[in-house]
Hints:
The chain is mostly helical. The protein has one domain. It is built from 13 helices and no strands.
Amino acid sequence: xxxxxxxxxxxxxxxxxxxxxxxxxxxxxxxxxxxxxxxxxxxxxxxxxxxxxxxxxxxxxxxxxxxxxxxxxxxxxxxxxxxxxxxxxxxxxxxxxxxxxxxxxxxxxxxxxxxxxxxxxxxxxxxxxxxxxxxxxxxxxxxxxxxxxxxxxxxxxxxxxxxxxxxxxxxxxxxxxxxxxxxxxxxxxxxxxxxxxxxxxxxxxxxxxxxxxxxxxxxxxxxxxxxxxxxxxxxxxxxxxxxxxxxxxxxxxxxxxxxxxxxxxxxxxxxxxxxxxxxxxxxxxxxxxxxxxxxxxxxxxxxxxxxxxxxxxx
Length: 314
């Protein structure tokens, strides 16, 4: 079963990597506002069909309105940041920075979840953040708005994920999924008027592909977690650096420089250590990183963790 789950995980992150290629390609002609708007628009029918299967009784008023509002805000800002980062930075560099999200989840779990983080995980966090510095190499290269956007996406994704861990069991899946999507649609729809460009049919198809790939990747991730332990599936996200290297070289003429490779390696090792440390049992009461089952950079797709909780009757 674990092998099946691992393969589904690899497939999921391969699909997500293809999703990001479309973002980068279309980002050369359209603003992030416009891409997020249309991707969200095309996502609505897919997510609605899935939510129709939810037989949980209730309403659309959140049980925790302030937490829901904060998660909606962070998810909306995350969508903008990650779409912009993929547009202006090499794919591998964006992934390397986004891989810092488990480190930030570990830190945020202390004030939000009351998690006790021991010396081993603290060392892993510090080492991982050193890896981020290696990727960014301040002083030897000019840091851009794209780097800031990627860092912000990692931070915002961590906040959104920790909120799901905080209140997800008490909130309906439809509330957790629908509010951020509506916010993306409304906010990006208003902002795209500032930079709107007419969209020919092929590019419109590309934006629909972003929605379809995000949704498909999410379904593959659900199948992965249904067939394997979280500690098996979670490391599969790091396969994206391989896809980024291949796609970046073949489609955009990007090369993986030594600093990005070294920094990504450091971040991945520290992230894996935290995953396995949580999986040992007794080391973490909340296992916040293992419970983060959705991908931060798939900003317009559904939350995998909320769907799994529904399936498990939690």
